[in-house]
UniProtKB/TrEMBL annotation:
This is PH domain-containing protein. Residues 18-93 form the YdbS-like PH domain. Pfam families: bPH_2. InterPro entries: YdbS-like_PH. It comes from the Bacteria.
Length: 122
């Protein structure tokens, strides 16, 4: 499965920008620019969590912003801004990232600040 969406204006949801988002089972690709093109990829297995943000204006025009928390060095927080089908894309990214992590046998470790040092009692 693949999603391809264009970034849209918040006003009327018109796609008059030069940013394209492509989400596949392996990669999230952000392609920006008209004169100077920039393409940035993030492997889907690096996505740790996904958040859907929908402002009042976005809800009025059927848009949303998907925020991906990743382990990627170039984009620790990857935004797919003002896109249609935002909820479907968020759900797809969550499922695809879990499948990709299981396939690659990767594991996320969470640092909760426990150093293993036990304070001594007097």
């Amino acid at each position: 499965m693949e999603f391809r969406e264009k970034k849209r204006w918040g006003f009327f949801g018109l796609p008059f920008t030069f940013t394209t988002y492509m989400v596949t089972e392996e990669l999230i690709t952000v392609e920006e620019g008209f004169i100077n093109k920039r393409e940035n990829d993030c492997y889907i297995y690096k996505v740790q969590d996904v958040e859907l943000i929908r402002t009042l204006g976005e809800r009025m025009f059927g848009l949303g912003t998907v925020k991906c928390y990743t382990g990627d060095t170039t984009n620790p927080e990857l935004y797919l801004t003002h896109i249609k089908n935002a909820k479907n894309i968020k759900n797809f990214i969550l499922e695809a990232s879990e499948k990709a992590r299981l396939k690659r046998r990767t594991m996320n470790m969470l640092d909760i600040g426990a150093d293993g040092d036990i304070p001594e009692e007097n």
